[in-house]
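Key result, reporting period 2: structure in, sequence out.
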């Protein structure tokens, strides 16, 4: 039976391997401190946080999120540790709320590894506090207990850490917030929540499932089913329709043969259309793979930690050094480690096989906006009549199974700009290339992304502008230029930079003023109200201080009114601007022209290898698609 704790109440823990689950409704930082008998934290190495997420017996999330899972193995904690305090804090660098009184009350649950709740605590009564000690696990007379704390701090993380005796609390608090800001900039944005305004299916609000559970109807970070009404019946009423039939049911998988799992089918998810069901299914696969890999890695880490503890106990006994007792103990510890990791690998392989089978049926069924360039759907391409809900910008995979690729989908219209990093990254692929090759690949990648955006929008509803101040991107830009798909020729030099930025800045200003005044019909007749994409090559070449300020303005204000930036740049080239440009880089989704493990998932924070979209060798599909786009833009002759 679950113990529902109130502030100050405690409960005995029946086991030592635990998960602490946090649901906050808004992104929060989750961490933990290790304390001695008096609760004193003796140094920064006793604090687990996003910048240093692992300590012996403890692992926390690597980024701010609305939902967290903290892994705790009380037996693996150092002997000097008598208290584990779980802390929550509001991030300061991502533009969110600054006090817990402005958000829903956080909910914390201590569970077993199977997801069974042991104790729960809802942190009510918070107001100006921006950090809170949620609960603590403490050792008393050899037994571990959990206590609901709920102590908030208006002074934030620094005040809370200082209260626990940490001497360099302010410095550590700053480094934690910096780590959170960096992680937020590289995290893949999850689908938006369901709102009455959009009529689309979005996040649910149910509990996060254990790693190997089937996907529930309403997981926290993937698209969810329509809400259920009383009695468990699903209400399919569209929020903007007076009367609407329910969406067609998803395809039904063939019955499973005895002893075998059911065969997967494409579109086996909720949604108002096949495209939306496929979108939701892909996000479900993404989360399943993230949690499956997390469960496997946690099991392997536990097996290694357990073996090390058993060996330490054996070798600390002088009697084990006589005869073969020590050797036998080592063999037994390693055999037990191998057994645990073997079972974990079996579970992983089973889950990976199921996901691979699902991927094999989903990929061929994807529409053009979700498909790779080698998908036959592109050979039958026609300019669409409406905007799709998302666009594929590459693939993601984990080292546990590199050939299992998850499509990386971003919602349309774009909610943030894109930065193609043309610099030398830490990846093996980048190390094999010189600077010129990387810059060329980066520009080719930008052209491929721009072509996909042009291809998935209806005719005349998306325009592409190009700033190529030094003219170095002429070769890569050739498909866009020769097809006639651009709004105008690429502009060179500082004068061209100023002209394009002034044009797009004026558009943003006018649309914002019209929206604020409620007078969208009063826009000038020569203003293109379609979505606009600005490709900037070799930034900051050709940019003065005014142009840099305008570019930052477009990056911040443009997406809300249909102006988007696609930067091709090496951050080192702009090092002279110092921290002035840090907000610009953080506001853009960083992609690379070669495989690189710089993106993180929004659930457990794995580092995923990003694979950019690649044209099949010898294929003319890019030119054919752009030719169709350009033809649809031309006035029809009658």
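The corresponding designed sequence is given below.
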């Amino acid at each position: 039976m679950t113990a529902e704790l109130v502030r100050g109440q405690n409960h005995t823990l029946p086991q030592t391997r635990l998960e602490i689950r946090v649901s906050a409704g808004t992104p929060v930082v989750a961490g933990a401190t290790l304390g001695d008998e008096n609760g004193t934290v003796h140094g920064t190495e006793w604090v687990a946080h996003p910048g240093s997420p692992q300590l012996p017996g403890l692992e926390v999330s690597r980024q701010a999120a609305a939902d967290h899972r903290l892994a705790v193995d009380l037996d693996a904690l150092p002997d000097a540790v008598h208290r584990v305090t779980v802390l929550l804090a509001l991030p300061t660098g991502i533009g969110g709320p600054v006090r817990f009184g402005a958000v829903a009350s956080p909910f914390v649950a201590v569970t077993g590894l199977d997801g069974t709740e042991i104790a729960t605590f809802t942190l009510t009564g918070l107001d100006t506090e921006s950090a809170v000690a949620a609960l603590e696990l403490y050792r008393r007379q050899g037994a571990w207990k959990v206590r609901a704390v709920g102590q908030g701090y208006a002074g934030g993380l620094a005040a809370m850490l200082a209260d626990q005796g940490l001497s360099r609390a302010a410095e550590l608090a700053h480094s934690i917030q910096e780590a959170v800001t960096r992680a937020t900039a590289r995290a893949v944005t999850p689908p938006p929540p369901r709102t009455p305004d959009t009529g689309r299916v979005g996040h649910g609000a149910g509990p996060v499932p254990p790693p190997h559970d089937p996907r529930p109807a309403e997981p926290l970070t993937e698209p969810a089913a329509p809400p259920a009404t009383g009695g468990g019946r699903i209400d399919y009423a569209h929020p903007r329709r007076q009367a609407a039939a329910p969406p067609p049911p998803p395809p039904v998988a063939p019955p499973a043969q005895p002893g075998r799992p059911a065969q997967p089918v494409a579109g086996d998810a909720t949604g108002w259309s096949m495209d939306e069901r496929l979108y939701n299914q892909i996000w479900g696969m993404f989360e399943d793979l993230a949690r499956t890999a997390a469960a496997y890695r946690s099991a392997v880490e536990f097996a290694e930690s357990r073996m090390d503890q058993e060996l330490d106990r054996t070798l600390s006994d002088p009697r084990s050094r006589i005869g073969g007792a020590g050797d036998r103990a080592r063999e037994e510890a390693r055999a037990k480690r191998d057994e645990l990791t073997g079972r974990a690998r079996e579970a992983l392989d089973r889950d990976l096989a199921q996901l691979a089978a699902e991927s094999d049926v989903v990929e061929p069924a994807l529409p053009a906006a979700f498909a790779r360039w080698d998908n036959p759907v592109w050979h039958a391409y026609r300019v669409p009549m409406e905007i799709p809900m998302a666009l594929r910008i590459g693939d993601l995979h984990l080292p546990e199974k590199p050939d299992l690729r998850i499509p990386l989908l971003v919602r349309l219209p774009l909610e943030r700009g894109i930065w193609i990093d043309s610099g030398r990254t830490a990846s093996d692929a980048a190390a094999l290339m010189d600077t010129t090759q990387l810059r060329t690949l980066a520009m080719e990648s930008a052209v491929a992304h721009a072509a996909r955006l042009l291809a998935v929008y209806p005719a005349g509803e998306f325009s592409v502008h190009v700033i190529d101040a030094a003219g170095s991107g002429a070769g890569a830009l050739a498909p866009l230029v020769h097809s006639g798909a651009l709004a105008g020729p690429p502009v060179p030099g500082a004068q061209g930079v100023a002209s394009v930025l002034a044009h797009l800045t004026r558009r943003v200003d006018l649309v914002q003023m019209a929206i604020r005044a409620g007078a969208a019909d009063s826009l000038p007749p020569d203003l293109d109200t379609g979505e606009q994409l600005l490709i900037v090559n070799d930034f900051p070449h050709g940019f003065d201080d005014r142009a840099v300020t305008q570019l930052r303005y477009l990056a911040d204000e443009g997406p809300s009114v249909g102006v988007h930036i696609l930067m091709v740049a090496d951050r080192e080239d702009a090092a002279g601007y110092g921290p002035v440009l840090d907000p610009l880089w953080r506001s853009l989704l960083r992609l690379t022209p070669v495989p690189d493990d710089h993106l993180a998932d929004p659930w457990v924070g794995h580092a995923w290898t990003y694979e950019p979209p690649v044209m099949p060798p010898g294929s003319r599909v890019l030119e054919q698609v752009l030719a169709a786009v350009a033809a649809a833009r031309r006035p029809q002759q009658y």
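The two ends are 76 Å apart (CA to CA). The chain is about 30% helix and 20% strand. This case is discussed further under Risks and Mitigation.
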